[in-house]
Specification:
The chain is an all-alpha fold and about 240 residues long. Helix content is about 75%, strand content about 0%. The protein has ten helices and no strands. Helix 5 runs parallel beside helix 9 and helix 7 packs antiparallel against helix 8. It starts with a helix and ends with a helix.
């Protein structure tokens, strides 16, 4: 999936999510007012159950699915799927609870406490999907040509994935339920505190995680500098290379 198409699908997924989060409740209220079912007790219940219980969750999960699949297809196009695919999958899983929470309570978007509790995996994911929107196509070397920069990106990304696993309280319950393995839930719940201690270097603070996040963002930005400085190939040259293949 090339950059323009990736951007289009990402905007589509974000638009569906924002529609379900911010607009659907107002549309529901308007429909109730126009239909007049509010004048009769219980007359609006079927419509409310359909919208709140079926349509809204369907829109939210569709949006998350579009964002996830578009990112994987973009990584496949750039030949980065084998390493970055599992990393991105972990980031998406760790970010899903906060997305569902925001979708259930749109007012949480304006609450500083909610913004402060954003999972660090969500911030890694936001930085990475933004990077993928840049046009890194034929002839380019995405995610850093230099070995030190590429190593920095990979190490910080692995840290971000481990942080997503360590700081996701729902992970043990979700894993045990989906795989029908209660013992796995116990193992994850016992391992998470130790992993948190390792990732925070025993401080119990999120400062190390944010420092690694800053290094990850800086490395992504640095990897774009050679691409920005290099002359861009013409459209005819790109089409010629594709025809030769």
């Amino acid at each position: 999936m090339f950059a323009g198409r990736y951007l289009w699908w990402m905007l589509m997924g974000i638009g569906i999510f924002l529609f379900a989060t911010l607009s659907l409740d107002y549309i529901t209220w308007l429909m109730i007012q126009l239909s007049g079912c509010g004048d009769m007790a219980g007359a609006c219940e079927p419509a409310l159950r359909l919208i709140s219980g079926v349509l809204k969750p369907a829109c939210i999960w569709t949006a998350i699915g579009i964002l996830f699949m578009a990112t994987l297809l973009r990584l496949h196009t750039l030949s980065l799927i084998w390493f970055w695919g599992p990393i991105v999958a972990i980031w998406f899983v760790a970010s899903t609870p906060i997305l569902l929470f925001i979708a259930a309570d749109a007012a949480a978007l304006t609450q500083p406490a909610t913004l402060a509790l954003l999972p660090v995996a969500f911030l890694f994911l936001a930085a990475f999907v933004t990077y993928l929107m840049f046009a890194l196509e034929d002839g380019d070397i995405p995610l850093a040509a230099s070995v030190p920069l590429r190593l920095t990106l990979r190490l910080t990304a692995v840290y971000g994935a481990l942080a997503g696993v360590a700081f996701m309280p729902e992970l043990s319950r979700i894993a045990g339920t989906l795989l029908d393995m209660p013992a796995l839930s116990v193992v994850i719940a016992l391992a998470q505190p130790y992993l948190q201690t390792v990732l925070t270097f025993g401080t119990g603070s999120m400062a190390p995680a944010y420092a690694v996040l800053a290094a990850f963002i800086a490395a992504l930005a640095a990897s774009l500098l050679p691409h920005a400085a290099a002359p861009q190939p013409s459209r005819s040259a790109i089409m010629l290379r594709r025809l030769r293949r």
